[in-house]
Write a structure and sequence with these properties.
Length: about 120
Amino acid sequence: MSKNPKYRTIIFYKDYFQKFFIKQQDKVKDKIIWTLELLEELPRIPDTYLKHIENTDGLYEIRIQFGRNIFRIFCFFDEGRLVVLANAFQKKTQKTPKKEIEKALKIKAEYEKEKK
């Protein structure tokens, strides 16, 4: 257990992220966990690891690179300190596929609707 204060708490919404996570190799899982811990513990997260998706209302991507493989986990904030993980995928092209962004936005809308 780390001694660092937590600046954020990460939660999983339904099983969108877990479905992706369980399919990954152990070393990839380790890198994902390391990156998520970074998000919780750093006061300011570098763009290398977390980037706002342009033209969206509060959708972010957590960026993970392992060797030549690039992974993205979509997330959004709830009450500022809570990071809600949505869907994730392995990135194979330069641009993030639009269908993945649309899926993440649907998940975010679903989360917000259920919260009311």
